[in-house]
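Need the bound structure for NAI, inputs here:
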Amino acid sequence: MSNLVSLEQRGALAILRIDNPPVNALSPAVVQGIKAAVDRFEANPSMRALVVCAAGRTFVAGGDISEFSKPDFTTEPFNTTLNRIENLGRPVVAVLHGTVLGGGLELAMACHYRIAAPSTRLGLPEVLLGILPGSHGTQRLPRLVGVKQALNMMLSGRPIGADRALQAGLVDALAEGDPDAAAVQFMEGLVAAGKGPRRTGERTVSMEDVEPDFFETMLDEVKTKKGAYPAPQRIVHCVEAAATLPLLQGQGVEARLFEECRVSPQSEAMRKLFFAEREATRIPGVAENVAPRPIRKVGVIGAGTMGGGIAMNFANADIPVVIIETSQEALDRGLGIVRKNYENTAAKGKLAPGEPARRMGLLTGSLDFQDLADCDLVIEAVFENLDIKKQVSQRLGAVCKPGAIIASNTSTLDVDVLATASGRAADFLGMHFFSPANVMRLLEIVRGAQTAPDVLATIVRLAKTIGKVPVVSGVCYGFIGNRMLESYLRESEFLMMEGASPAQIDRAIQSLGLPMGPCRMLDLAGLDVAAKVVIERGKAGALPADPSYRAVVQKMMELGRFGQKTGFGYYRYDGRTPVPDPEVETICIALAEKYGIARRTGITDQEIIERCLYPLVNEGARILEEGIAYRPGDIDLVWVNGYGFPDYRGGPMHLADTIGIAKIAGRLDHYAQLRGDQHGYWSISLLLAFMAERGLHFRDWPIKPEN
Ligand code: 3HC
Ligand code: NAI
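Answer from helper R.:
Posting the output first, comments after.
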């Protein structure tokens, strides 16, 4: 028998234990081991009942995702074993703990009974990987918990707690204490009650609360909301099959639709992101076993847009926060916004009624930097001004306790300069949250020249604690995301001056699945804020010697067209609805004339996509070449979690792989010919050129171009 799965007899009980650390994923060897254990159990009548459990921190967390891309992947051996387990003539109980997910829950549902430790989480998260539960989950879950609850779990991918699972009928009992003892006790109870096997597959799906047009309505809903994803519509079809067909036929429908999802490019992209997210926590030069520093209390400087949101992240994770402001008025305003935020969430039923007050109780306002003396981490989120930030960094260096970590939320300034100002460069790093900071999942962690390895390890771990996706970036203007964004915004402005309208540009970009194109995005963020960044960079001598560079946004600011907040920007606003404004075209015509840019008609959506996206990929390649980002997957995580790049396209670098690197290089060359390249806008990075020449993809990373 495989050493990943054991079968041990204890009296009349047989205990099947899966032991495949870290999460007991169902690799082919584990599946084979389960099959062999079932064979032995079947052949030995002295084993009167079977207990299925797993060793380590969790029950089975699902199928082995790393297997899904293999051409010969099949769920068949596992699925056959599941039906065999269900059909056993002696009772089978699953003993659950940790995270019972995907194939793990499907295994549990094939057992006749389920008992769970109170802290267990149970779910079918396949949809988040672009697939559907392919080991009978779509057929057994509705039989256990009903159509609506089953669809809710499968379409959201969100796990439920053991309490809710008990109420819903997904588990039969909660088991405190030693799981083996609980299993024995549960089995004794069964025997005493004269109960034998209880097969989920023999149940019918209750249609009591299901309206006649329910499936049709659900299909319409998921088509509208999730039409770009392969799984949601197919999940609805599978559940309808569960409700209307016998088990085996329903399983057939599921198998066919699972396979369609598995081989889809969307699922491949989403699976790649799953592994990229885990890979991103491995940082070159930081040993995996380095001990992180404890973070028990956090300080935040500035209770503005970002400071308030940043503080909420920690309060949400039960970590107390001290917030420092310059005046009582600013402090009251900032904390007032946080309170309102919590209250609104509670009013929507997404937070328990007592939670706003409890979380506010974790936030302490102060006007005195001395109150930071016992904080383990202090994050400054004051105005984006180098002198002010240097002063604040210096004060933090003076008041923070030895070993405290000091972080800046700057989006554009040099983290190394601030680190030096603090006098504690080893304890210093950037923590670039995205707005709204309590919502956006991305956290760019900016590694200074002297940031200590344990400081990085601490912040990566803390990011996970507060539910963020951490990506480490080196120091450069804009770090990974905003640096790449620059070329995208540059081209969108040139396109406007050449004759494309903001609406056409946004439509073309949104056709890729981004929620907003560049014009709507900047109107929302504020064109004044965006223009000031360009102006500051100009003052610092960091812009190309091209007077037409980002001329549109600067003109917009000059004209007071700040975007949504003033009712005018690249669009005119009717409430929050953008309406095309002919005035913008007039402005662009005047700018084109001023800078000698030829106006054209017939700019295609394809040109817009190529001109906005391909330079962005080229800049991504440069970022990799310079070691600012460690892996293409890190860049993809930044764009998916910080800029709304659709996860089903896997991020810009993954998308570039699917388009073809040589094709992208060819088009960059084409635009260099067409538009001239005196400012280097179209110069192909060394890495991209190397890859194009050799037919390489970003997925072949690491790639070392020859000099
Ligand atoms: N397959 C393969 N590897 C997996 C895995 C899986 N299902 N789940 C986790 N891992 C790996 C991770 O890649 C990571 O590896 P690494 O250490 O080499 O980077 C390691 O296990 C630990 O994972 P995490 O860092 O994510 O550990 P956490 O403790 O933070 O989280 C978890 C644990 C909640 C189980 C989380 O890993 C998770 O959500 N896993 C995915 C669960 C899932 O999606 N299951 C469904 C799979 S699809 C399926 O079952 C298909 C079936 O219907 C046919
Ligand atoms: P903001 O203007 O809303 O808030 C700044 C706050 O800092 C103000 O309340 C101000 O009173 C306070 N402040 C200024 N000097 C202070 C000092 N010496 N001590 C204590 N408090 C002080 O600014 P916002 O938007 O919150 O930005 C803050 C930082 O976050 C900036 O570095 C910005 O670049 C960065 N950032 C902003 C993003 C955004 O979308 N707004 C996104 C990512 C980063």
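Comments: Residues 129 and 271 are 5 Å apart (CA to CA). Residues 5-263 form a domain with the 2-enoyl-CoA Hydratase; Chain A, domain 1 fold (CATH 3.90.226.10).
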